[in-house]
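**User:** I keep going back and forth on a fold encoding question. It is easy to fool oneself when nobody else works the same problem. Could you pick a protein and write out its sequence and tokenised fold? Could you put it straight underneath, so I can go through it closely?

**Assistant:**
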Amino acid sequence: MREFLQRVPRWALVLAQLAHAASWVLLFWIATQQGVAGLTPAAIAWIHLVGLGWITLTALAILIPLIPATTGVTWQAPRLQHLALAGFAVGAICFPAAWLAFDRAIPAVGGILVVAAAFYVALALWALSGAARGERVERAVARAFSISLIVFALVAVLGATLAGAIAAPVVPTWFLHLARAHALLALLGWLTLLIYGVSARTLRLLFAERSRLLFAHIVVGTLGMAGAIVLAAGAAAGSLATMWVGAVAMAIAAIAFAVDTLDIVARSQGALVVRAFVVASVLWSLVAIVLGIGTLLGHHWSDAFGYVVLVGWVGQMLDGHLASLARPLPAWLSFVAFQSAVLYGLMGLLAGFAAPVALAAAFGALGWCAAIVALGSVYRPIE
């Protein structure tokens, strides 16, 4: 895993970790100064700081070496790929800042993000087209990456459309429906499906074990993709029945992924702290299923659902991969702190109390500091 991560653009990982740290500071400020009631501009800034600045920037950086390693293709224009990543990084940092301090810049920064995302995706699809001449497995992996990246581009276009609509004198009637579809497609169609696809390869690197449940991969890939698209389409159309169809498909995919991943972890002899992170991530994904179903049933759980998906499910899987490079003792401290952050944040958002969310932010900051110590203590310059 270390040799693989050495090929990731280091500046992007550093910037993503700084965004991760800033997200806990911002969450603490929101909880202590504004409370947790309502989707305020600061809350929207926090969501995008986590989703874009930390998670998506990390994912796009990792894809640069991962795509060639798993599909056998080569980047046709590697310098342009790094340029597209840099453009996205600028937008990912400036977009939350615009929500906090200069809302008139939101449409312009949204435009930067969609152009950079489209540029990155176009270059990636160009490279992935070379897998058509490869083996069956390579073609399948390339197809999965292509679908995920196309969904990412769609998420960016929807986001830019929403950002442009904010500048209108009157907010369009379709705004709230499209915003909900954008959020669901980002959380479930981009980030979740990307983890489903990427982890099929990276879990082998972490645990030296292969999946024994090949049918689960078919269920996860097929129902996961269909469910995310149907769920987002139902949200855009305001159709609760359509959303239920998509939600059921996504729930089945999540359960299949959980069973397959837990089976791999149970057979592994890998580092215990890494296994703990991966198991925690999977369990938080199951909690997210309950929260999502509860939201469709009419409970006001949507904020808690988004928080658990971002910080619990996606965030802990990401942290688990980084923990494979870290010293065990501080990595265990970061594990305990991060799980506390997810738990207290969940409790505060469900109850509508700001104090637990502020405590979650404090635990998150502690977990980040411990993770940096754990990584820094084993750091060796790339030769």
